[in-house]
UniProtKB/TrEMBL annotation:
This is Phage protein. InterPro entries: Enc34_ssDNA-bd, NA-bd_OB-fold. SUPFAM superfamilies: Nucleic acid-binding proteins. Residues 188-209 are annotated as: Disordered. Gene3D superfamilies: Nucleic acid-binding proteins.
Amino acid sequence: MISMDEKTLTELLRKYPTTMHGDDGKTVITCVARLSFVHFKEPRRGDNPSSKPMYGCAAILPPAADVSLLRSICEKAWSDRKCVSRTEPKAKPLKKQADNTKWEGFGDEGFYFNCSTINPVDLFNLDMTRAPVDKFYSGCWGRLKIHSYDFDKGLNWGVSLGLQAVQFFADDEKLGGGGNAADGFEAHGNAVNGSRPAQMPATGADSVW
């Protein structure tokens, strides 16, 4: 269930689209997305018991979101891959919500992606002050700084997304389900009410693309 009205969401997508960050062609600040499967407080281990515990979340993109830059960073990571013997990626991070509508918050249209990191996630409020980890939960809205990278683990290979930082944007119904981390975000007033951005302070299923 989404309590944010469509008009507000449309305005947020217009004002805060996904933007490229840095010069590597693999890092973006996303548009506003709804967070799900949030584990920022403690890392979680995947299905493989030998895997490393990771912090991370799923980001549910609004159906109207432009995903062209997300596709671009995935393509860049694959074109720069170390294992050139692999001709096609087996794993792709951008997925269709429609393939997972059993999960609360996932709809019939639009995309989502998973992102993770072995390090604690840098978390920020709208005004770019540090945010407490308890402010983030499955169902809230935020913008994410993510980067793409290639991997090859023998039986599985392709592109994945690393999570660097998250900026809180708005509350909503709860769901069941490197470098300067602040660099690239902007400080904002109440984004939902349309305040102008302030100057950022200088602070330290089926896969597609």
